[in-house]
Design brief:
The protein is an all-alpha fold and about 100 residues long. Helices cover about 95% and strands about 0% of the residues. The protein has 1 helix and no strands. The radius of gyration is 41 Å and the shape is rod-shaped.
């Protein structure tokens, strides 16, 4: 009968060890998941910062292009005005062809 009790105690000890081993495995898995999640969050934050910077640069570039286009339009008007004045001067000097 004592052998039977010893066997039952050994079985209980083995069962508890298995439970503890599973708990340790889950604990390390949870730690790994938490670490992965932290790394992923940090990476996402860095990526979001880069995307925001690119978007800001895109807006700045669009604004710069609009300014350049407006300046080009103004220069074209001035050039056309100058061409008209040059034609008048040529006519006055009888150089127009």
């Amino acid at each position: 009968m004592l052998d039977n009790i010893d066997t039952m105690i050994e079985d209980k000890i083995i069962e508890k060890l298995i439970e503890l081993e599973e708990a340790v495995k889950q604990s390390s898995s949870k730690a790994e998941i938490a670490q992965f999640r932290a790394e992923q969050t940090m990476f996402n934050d860095q990526l979001l910062t880069i995307v925001k910077r690119i978007d800001e640069e895109r807006y700045a570039t669009i604004a710069w292009i609009r300014r350049v286009e407006e300046e080009a339009k103004e220069q074209k008007k001035i050039t056309q005005s100058h061409e008209g004045q040059i034609q008048k001067i040529k006519q006055e000097l009888k150089l127009a062809t």
